[in-house]
Amino acid sequence: MITLISIKSNREIELLKIAGSIVYQTHQYLKPYIREGITTKELDILAEEFIRSKGAIPSCKGYHGFPATLCTSVNQEVVHGIPSERKLKNGDIISIDVCACYKGYHGDSAWTYKVGNVSHEVDSLLKHTEEALYAGLAMIKPGNRIGDISSAVESVANKYKLGVVRELCGHGVGHSLHEQPDIPNYGKAHTGPLIKEGMVFAVEPMLNLKGADICMLEDGWTIESYDGSPSAHFEHTVLVTKDGYQILTGE
Length: 251
Description:
Blueprint: H1 10-30, H2 40-53, E1 57-58, E2 71-74, E3 77-79, E4 93-102, E5 105-114, H3 120-137, H4 146-159, E6 163-164, E7 170-172, E8 179-183, E9 200-203, E10 206-208, E11 214-216, E12 223-225, E13 231-233, E14 236-240, E15 245-247
Antiparallel strand pairs: 1-4, 2-4, 3-12, 4-5, 6-10, 7-8, 7-9, 9-14, 10-13, 11-12, 14-15
Helix pairs in contact: 1-2, 3-4
């Protein structure tokens, strides 16, 4: 089967850059508020107000029925946690996934934050999941293949004996929030679709401290590690350039 991956026009790239910048700015805006005692719902309200103030709309709100602006996934929650009256406490970690749409084009970035003081093993989980993200990004350049990204992420996870969530993956980004290709966090180098200049991807390692298995909660959205171990999630949207990549959801 042929995977059709869109090459973005110059106009599309400019809009994607603005969308990505708004996502980055939203993360920076939220960071001082991520502290003991705040609720995930309060973070969600802050994020929606900020995104709309920038002339964008929250991509996730209403997406397949998702009820909020942010995905706020705490501790063992891997992804798609729904903001609520839950208060963050010292020692928690929270993965915040921000998606914003600007004039029909999307930015997408997730980051896992520490609340107060966390254990050494949880601190290492965050450090090494972020390391896996940048290892994957380093494989992005014209002529490489999607499997090179996947293999690099998996290699870091295996090095630190972290569980690679296999059911969830990165993806293309553009006029739709999720486009081709799928970008798994495991795989073989030199396989998969060819990477070309002008493609836009979201690479997003989701790694568990222990086992890789996951389960979905009764809310139909929140996905947790099956063994209850902490999970980390780091994600950037990037543009493939003529000789590498440019992060659209960072400075």
